């Protein structure tokens, strides 16, 4: 019985954001620090989910962000062809009209799209670099 209880406790802990698998960026992503944020260009192979995950992970590790802080799209991905396909994320909502992300797909094309760092980290669960 003790083993079963321990298994349930470990399973519950493994589903919390603190235990979420960190996204391992592949060689197709480029992280460029910006004033108060980061520009991420390239393809994650996981669409918007991969970009939010990578941005949240970067904010935690490199920018000293806290789980409850919000992450915002400050310079959205350009629609159509051309450009580097990149998105710039920031922790500062100044000059933006924040809008909570409801549907991930279009969130990278709208300045002000926002989610908490902890939400972004939960999107990392199960992501691995393509080809691994």
Would you list the SSEs in sequence order as H and E? HEEHEEEEH
The number of distinct helices, counting runs of at least 4 residues, comes to: 3
Share in helix: 25-40%
The overall strand count is 6
Largest sheet: 6 strands, mixed
- What class do helices, strands and sheet pairing give? alpha+beta
Mean pLDDT: 80
Spatial order of the strands forming the largest sheet: 1-2-4-3-6-5
| Contiguous runs where pLDDT drops below 50 for at least 5 residues | 2-24
Categorize the overall geometry. Answer: globular
Number of domains in the coordinates? Answer: 1
- Quote the distance from N terminus to C terminus: 37 Å
Radius of gyration: 16 Å
Strand composition percent: 15-25%
Describe the 3D structure.
By secondary structure, the chain is α+β, with helices and mostly antiparallel strands. Helix content is 27%, strand content 21%. It has one domain (2-122). It is built from three helices and six strands; from the N terminus they run αββαββββα. It has a six-stranded mixed sheet with strand order 1-2-4-3-6-5. The longest helix has 16 residues, at 47-62.
């Amino acid at each position: 019985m003790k083993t079963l209880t321990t298994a349930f406790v470990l399973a519950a802990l493994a589903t919390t954001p603190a235990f979420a698998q960190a996204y391992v960026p592949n060689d197709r992503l480029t992280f460029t620090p910006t004033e108060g944020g980061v520009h991420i260009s390239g393809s994650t192979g996981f669409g918007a989910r991969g970009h939010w995950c990578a941005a949240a992970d970067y904010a935690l590790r490199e920018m000293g962000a806290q789980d409850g802080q919000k992450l915002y799209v400050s310079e959205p991905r350009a629609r159509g062809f051309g450009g580097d396909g990149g998105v710039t994320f920031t922790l500062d909502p100044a000059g933006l009209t924040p809008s909570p992300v409801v549907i991930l797909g279009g969130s990278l094309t709208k300045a002000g799209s926002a989610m908490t760092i902890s939400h972004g980290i939960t999107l990392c669960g199960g992501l691995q670099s393509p080809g691994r």
